[in-house]
Specification:
The chain is mainly alpha-helical. The protein is built from 5 helices and 4 strands. The protein has helices at about 5-10, 20-30, 35-45, 50-65, 100-115, and strands at about 70, 75, 90, 95-100. It is globular and about 50 Å long.
């Protein structure tokens, strides 16, 4: 799910979209968090008004609307999972190489597709790489 879709579903459930909740959502969307405690530390560094209970309630609400799956380390549903790869290497025309972790490759792919108008409401289901 994308941020706008998640916010819309939260509103439909009667949830007010506060600054603290947006910070928590952004924290989760930024990267894989392994637990609520990690989300709390990252989010509370941005705003002192975020409490541990707020994080737990937000995580529970995200799980209720189907936007979050705790079994996959707080990944937002719909993001491609390339966790079986150890490293993604992109070779550029000047022979430099970009070594990307699976998480970074995920971010690059999703942001590139969004920026070029290929990804709007959809979720990536499958990636097929063809070579010559």
């Amino acid at each position: 799910m994308q941020k706008d879709e998640i916010i819309e579903k939260l509103k439909e459930k009667g949830c007010r979209i506060t600054k603290q909740r947006l910070i928590i959502l952004d924290t989760i969307l930024e990267g894989d968090c392994s637990c609520c405690k990690e989300i709390y530390y990252r989010a509370s560094a941005q705003s002192e008004g975020i409490g541990f209970a707020t994080v737990y309630r937000m995580v529970n609400m995200l799980e209720e609307i189907g936007a979050l799956d705790r079994t996959s380390m707080y990944r937002v549903n719909g993001a491609p999972d390339i966790s079986k790869c150890e490293n993604c290497v992109v070779k550029l025309s000047d022979n430099t190489e970009c070594n990307l972790t699976p998480e970074m490759w995920n971010k690059v792919l999703v942001s590139g597709l969004k920026a070029n108008g290929y990804l709007t409401d959809q979720e990536i289901e499958h990636i097929k790489v063809e070579t010559e």
